[in-house]
Amino acid sequence: MKKANKQMLELWAGFAADLLAQGHSCIVVTTRVTEEYELREGKLEESQPRQWI
C-alpha cells in the first residue's frame, strides 16, 4: 500500500475535525474515517509520526 501524501492527510484530518466539532467521540471518528476512506487503522499511524501534546 502506498504511503499517504500531504493532501490525503489534510483531507482525513479535515473530515475528522468536522466529526469532532459535531461532538462525536474519538472512537467514532476513527471508525468513520477508516470506513469512509477505506483505510486500516495502522495506515493512519504509518502516514504521520506521532505528535504529543
Offer a quick outline of the entry.
The protein contains three helices and no strands. It has helices at residues 6-21, 26-36, 41-47.
Distance between the termini: 29 Å
How much helix, percentage-wise, in residues?
55-70%
Average pLDDT figure: 78
Strand content: under 5%
Q: What can be said about the biggest beta sheet?
A: none
Counted beta strands: 0
How many helices? 3
Shape: globular
Structural class: mainly alpha
List the quaternary state of the chains. single chain
SSE run: HHH
Poorly predicted regions are: none
Radius of gyration: 11 Å
What descriptive keywords fit this protein?
53 residues; mainly alpha; 3 helices; globular
How does this structure look, described?
With 53 residues, the protein is mostly helical. The protein has a domain at 6-39. It is 64% helix and 0% strand. The chain contains 3 helices and no strands. The chain has helices at 6-21, 26-36, 41-47. The longest helix is centred in the N-terminal third of the chain and has 16 residues, at 6-21. The model has no long low-confidence stretch (mean pLDDT 78).
Q: Which helices and strands, and how do they pair?
A:
Elements: H1 6-21, H2 26-36, H3 41-47
Helix pairs in contact: 1-2
